[in-house]
């Protein structure tokens, strides 16, 4: 996961990119960066931290130019480093270039080894550097041709924004796994963003999504953009996780509003089995729409019985002797007044390791709930995702190692229910295909 | 508004106070501070910023001691300054002392003038300094007697925690306007806090509220506390605004759960008038419980159709040409997919100046809502509060200057409804009295 | 030690004060602060750190007004705290006031106890707060009279700058222990500073010193100042340490250039005893002028054989196994090429604890010096200073506990020589008296 | 200019490198960085600022390993950027590598263009990246062979430290333009540094200089090092500027102590022409030894009549109306008491643009000097240096555009004298050759 944004033909490009990144902060909190092209030179500012930490008003004002790209990086534990912030800038054969990337290249290691064997040097751990090298090494004459050349060598999930001195190339892989949409600014400029919620904040109008396998070229000073279909064998499969928990509920992903899809997932859960309970409660915030859908379908009253504290930020976590489950409690507090002696249905978006669910159930029991029935608005996660989502290894995925009943017992619930894969697909719309690797293990990218 | 916390007989007093303040961050984001008493000396750390900005793990570890008090300061525009952080510390006749204070002393100017005339010096704008001076100038022999002396000279809304070398005095004014509750820590220590949500996070058990006009004395090493009734003529009137929007929904204020009171306010709104609409939506987060109550009572479906971005933090606000209503949009984004061509009921907690409501309605119209009916889960605010809430002057209060219909027209709604004062009182419980000054102009404190 | 500065009738008062403090950074590196009076209100900014750390261009620009006072605080180990930065500001009976203070009040504890008994509260450890309280408690009608009143109650070494809304009062104690001089700015304004080197930097012209026991009143908009002699029984005794090592060599203290006095001290050392040696070297920087004087008088060649590193700043000091004497070596590096097999005379300004001298001698021996003769351009320090200099207790003063020969042996020198007190006095000028407490134990202040 | 340091076989390698960089802070204040190799991985920390700003105790403690290299970067106006800090790290064919570099590659642009044509990408403006690319692209099997390969393609002045997982390669170009010396640590480790003053601070013993055209290989765990002579056609020419003003006076450059050479330069100046004057004064700090030599030779008394303020740091420079020559005055203050009505000889190390000399002379005149005779302890600078020194273009070099008499008139001196080139060479030792490009325009590097 990550967020990318591009702005062109706006005399406040860096500011528009800034607010675009701000509205997509949920897609990445580790680092943030913006490149602008001005006076034939590209300037980049990037650093670790939230968008509002990395960029002051003065910094944005200093990033002049009509063309900008930006990036929010997701915090991936372990192999990330201070250098792994984007955009990635380079001087190369055709001048200056800057790239932002959302996704994951599955052949990154082999490409990197190949490049390294040919004498390339790498200054970070990011697969984005691969693309830069491939473009720089292509023998083609124009940047456009070189990008085409480079993309022939990479395999995986990617949305790319590539900025030269006066152009932005917006590219989506042939499966369209990650989303990328185009909006029009009021002053004839364009904004390209991972999620449409960015358009709402900056006052842009949604035009259309970049299509799977498509490259769109925006040029400074031109009101029209050009489209090139890069691949013939496209096989569109938007990632189901965008609907399940990545995207903001107010975003429209590939034509479907996320909030409505989540509500529908809740309705499907309610239809699966008749069930007697006193309350339906969501694990906030991502479980809210599904819990509403469940409540509307089942008639069981909906309550926000778990209160979420949104100030978490950089709190250190070091419990005193008497504090239990501190990490979960810093965020979530169930209310005894609502839960005591009640039979409750709890709606969550997924179970990954099972540890958080276990702790939430402990807190709900402590608050006096009589019965706790967990309903997950997604299927069991049995396989690691390789297409840009930070899921743990198979060993750590609880559903890869336990049956539904064992998981139920482990987390301490009275019952546990998941969606079936086809139920998920039906709720999202069975007229098209999806990336469902975490659920079905079908690693379709070749 | 502000948050105060005290901890005694805990060998991790500063850490417990830290998490207590963290859970009450919503009551004040301007500055934060903690004093500890250790080895017969009081040490204080305070600074501007959120709790998590002001205190690092190392800073908390350096604040040793079994006894601590802490404070979050509410951001009051205009007359606040860098020096106006609490606790306020002083050396005085009986040794060292530190004080935190939630509320507002209505005779602060006259007391301050009196003290200044007698030769006192003031190093901040806080009325808390008055109390320190009065204690220091009292001729009584013990701190307890001096506090009693000092309190005889001050009039207003106050919850105080006063820390000497080895004691904490917890005091509430005779009207009990601001809340203050006592919890028991697992290791026989106590925590005193403005809101009970602090107890949940630190694993403490609610014991009871400090009573109006009561002073409770906690002593280091003693498992029992002592209570003294300071005033005979008590007239308990908890502030209605705690229920309306100050307190966290998971707090219990004077025996009543805030979430449940807010839901009841929504039910009452629904009962007031039959109404045809397609959706009930809250202005998040504070409008959520009332909207749920309204929906349950009226049968009109509830939707979270306005999405709130919780990352707002320190974003600078400087719109581009094409951005309108940026300040509101940074926080709130209405979803066209849910609102288009719908008749909607919007539940909010209050209308103060009317400017925010006006902008929200613009955004809702832009999202295609056909009819917009605003229901406020509180009466019209016609008078400035003087008891610790930062309401603007009469001139700026829209309902002090316009009729309900004029306000409706000004904000651009299709209809507008408030609660009557007695409806509010009934929902909170008519068996007791409330501070309702903003609504009825009854400035009862003498 | 400390530095104070005042500026009046300059439309860039804070900037002039800033550069004044910058030029006097050697007198205090712990904290820095400036108060300005503008629009009938006093604003203060102060923080820990060097002048250039505490004040940015923007901060200075924000401190508007034609009148300013400033302070650099000396780093005194142990009992200093974050709160002990100056200026000290207060609201009091006559309005707003801000004070800076260089010196030490010897009756500070008794005055503080007296004030506390009367109900005063203290928010720092600084004796400057005493003066504020005394002024606030005086029953006189004007600030001028109140200051006179207050000064009657304090005893000690002090130079004060007291700023009201539109005036600066510059005051020196009746012994004139600490220096304070007046300079005229080109635009008819004035600058008052601890040292005349401040005048050189800001382009001011030296007018005269504030006299012992004198109060000078500068008023906004007035080109003339008023002088009041506060005490009849003046007994002028400028502190000898200003000449020995406090003041910058380019300052003129009470009419005598510091560099020239130090050179003369070196000459006197040379005249004391004929001596055969190959080189005279200073411990830089303060020993340089005396070493030059010694060289000129004795004919023994002067060399800068110890190189000083001026970047020391905030280096942490944690030697590796192979590093010895790191703390001294970070600053001072003797050159083997110059010292090997040489008989050297080393000129230093004083010996306090003896530990630094011991380490320097180790380094000189390691560099191959054949004979090391230490000459101190001051008498033996046998008594703690109480008049504003941070000397340690008698127990730690090596010359209070050892004879000259014992000290010589302890530090490992081949010979050791001090000045006699009368030699010091003659070099500074025997026509007047000096504060010599560290040398003669005559605590003359009453 | 820059400083480089390498440490191997020390269990406190990063700390030793830190203190080495600290002692060479004068060679570069813009940025600082250290790489360590630990557990088969290289970690780098670098940032803008002084050594003591960039590295805290904690940061150094976190840089574990027995092998480290470090760098201080000189502030070169204009084309430097935030990214231009060293060491430069990369992953490449043989694993991980980190490089530090002092000097300037004169064919850097052609090499860079060549590399770029072949598809290389550059992420900074530093020529150090060239070397990394050349090593990465070499087809040889070992790092040693690849370095040899790479060095065949570069031309210029360079001292390099190249760190692989377990080795440090120390390399000096065949002219030996920049210095590089080897020291032995007490625990059988080695330190390699630009200047020998680094050895003094860390307690290392000087072994020998790296020879021109030599590569020395240090290996983890081995007490012996290996030497390889890379070039046959060596032509040793240490840069004369190291003696003139770069190096610290306590360093020994190519066997000669810098202080002594500078003193000799002063003596030569004195011998050139008999001269009547009252005082010889240096422009501190670099002019001090030459002024001492001049004084000893001529018999004219030496005085430190210009006082230098060492706190300059990051002061902003924005004079008030009455401040003139602020930039020079922040550093230098001439003393009227010493200069008034005197005929003075001023010794400085060089005249580059002439603007600083002009301002110093204004200040000396303002201080009352009767005659001002400028003696420069170096020849006229008529040509830009290309071998690692930041001299301006020919257009800005005053001596490239004016005769000595014109310069004298421009700066306002009563007389002006430079050294002849052969006088400089004789003082440094005529038995060897020097890089003298700034003086003679002989760009010998091919």
TrEMBL record, chains A, B, C, D:
Mg(2+) binds at residues 286, 348-349. Gene3D superfamilies: 3.40.50.2020, Glutamine Phosphoribosylpyrophosphate, subunit 1, domain 1. Binds 1 Mg(2+) ion per subunit. Keywords: Glutamine amidotransferase, Glycosyltransferase, Magnesium, Metal-binding, Purine biosynthesis, Transferase. Residues 2-221 form the Glutamine amidotransferase type-2 domain. Coiled coil: none annotated. InterPro entries: GATase_2_dom, Ntn_hydrolases_N, PRTase-like, PRTase_dom, PurF, PurF_N. GO terms for biological process: 'de novo' IMP biosynthetic process; purine nucleobase biosynthetic process. Its EC number is 2.4.2.14. The active site is at residue 2. One of its GO terms (molecular function) is magnesium ion binding. It catalyses: 5-phospho-beta-D-ribosylamine + L-glutamate + diphosphate = 5-phospho-alpha-D-ribose 1-diphosphate + L-glutamine + H2O. Its cofactor is Mg(2+). Pathway: Purine metabolism; IMP biosynthesis via de novo pathway; N(1)-(5-phospho-D-ribosyl)glycinamide from 5-phospho-alpha-D-ribose 1-diphosphate: step 1/2. The keyword Repeat does not apply. In the C-terminal section; belongs to the purine/pyrimidine phosphoribosyltransferase family. HAMAP family: PurF (MF_01931). Catalyzes the formation of phosphoribosylamine from phosphoribosylpyrophosphate (PRPP) and glutamine. This is Amidophosphoribosyltransferase. It comes from Campylobacter blaseri.
